[in-house]
Amino acid sequence: MRKRLGILVAACFYYSGVIALARWFMQRSGKRLIILNYHRARGGDLQRHLRYLRSHYRVLNVDEALQEFFAPPAQSTRPKDQRTLLALTFDDGYHDNYTHAFPLASSLRVPITIFLVPGYIESEAYFWWGEGQRLVQRATVEETVMDGRKYRLQVQDEAAQLAQLIDNQVRHASSVAEREAFLQQMRMQLAVPSIVLPTEEADRPLTWAEIEEMERSGWVSFGAHTMHHPVLAYLKQHEELQYEVTACRLVLEERLGHPIRTFAYPIGRHEHIGEDAVQAVKQAGYLWAVTTENSVNMPDEDAYRLKRVLGDVTRHWLVMAAETSGIWGLFAPLWKTLIGKGESA
Questions:
Q1: Phi and psi dihedrals of 331, rounded to 5?
Q2: pLDDT tens digit sequence for 108-167
Q3: What is the CATH number of domain 31-124+204-314?
Q4: How far is CA 332 from CA 15, 34, 36, 166, 323, in A?
Q5: What distance in Å separates the CA atoms of residue 135 and residue 193, rounded to the nearest whole number?
Q6: How many CB atoms lie within 10 A of CB 239?
């Protein structure tokens, strides 16, 4: 019901011309940069999203967009295409970025940027933020005890509570080693089979072969997203924070053979970053860093706290059109009440 209401409202905005007027006003208001923040590429209608964005915005990969956006006035040239600048980004590097986003980007000639987590590429493990639900679903035991409480896995509410408890613990881990040790413990405790199901294939990370093929196409570029995707503000040791930020860039540059200039903070909201992480990103030599704070970027934006607009392929393209135009944000309190807000990783 809430989803249908959102589409209805967005359709009213679109077909009444309100969204076109909002795009015109944004374009006339001076330099702006929209950075869209997607994760998954399948499960929705990414093709309609890309067709709409290609028609109404000037789409560049994130490095090119940021270089132009932050160019000093003396070095800046006025582009012939006066549409608002936009960059499409995908966090984490899911396999469906290769199977779904890559073919569309190539065929529609729309550049995209994927922020990679090299530690997952090399380990071929599943991303930690989906493991709570996956481990509970794949468990071969009927019940288990955690933190002194018994959970019956055939009872839906108790299984969901256990999955949430696992997610909370790994999310707040003070080190990657602590997180991985806990996940291994839970795999053993729940007796989860190691065999990969066909339905889980899309959840795996990209491989280096897929990444290199995408980059050769010229339509996909890459940025850094830490080595192992910890929540940087929760890391106990400063040395580990520096490693996660710096090693990621070094590995990607070695594998891809060119500088990596843009960084995406894991989870990416203010409370998940911390000032130490911002300083580590600067010291590692990145030129720009993006958060998941939801807004359009203005000329005076902090280059290491850039904002992104939530992208979600499961959203109807009309809702996405309203979001990128800025009109959606004017009614944010109402949408949070009626429609709900997505989460980012």
A1: -115, 25
A2: 999 999 999 999 997 878 899 999 999 999 999 999 999 999 999 999 999 999 999 999
A3: 3.20.20.370
A4: 20, 17, 17, 31, 10
A5: 9
A6: 8
Look at the chain and count its residues: 345
In this prediction the pTM is 0.92
Round to whole Å and give the CA distance between 45 and 48: 6
Q: Which residues of 288-297 are buried (b: 16+ CB within 10 A; e: fewer)?
A: bbbbbbbebb
Residue reference for tokens 């950075």? 35
How do the domains of the chain map onto residue ranges? 31-124+204-314, 128-198
Q: How far apart are CA 211 and CA 205, in angstroms?
A: 10
Alpha carbon separation from 236 to 16, 182, 228 (Å, rounded): 52, 16, 15
Dihedral of the alpha carbons of 257, 100, 326, 35, in degrees to the nearest 10: -10
Would you state the structure tokens that stand for residue 21, as one six-digit string?
A: 């007027």
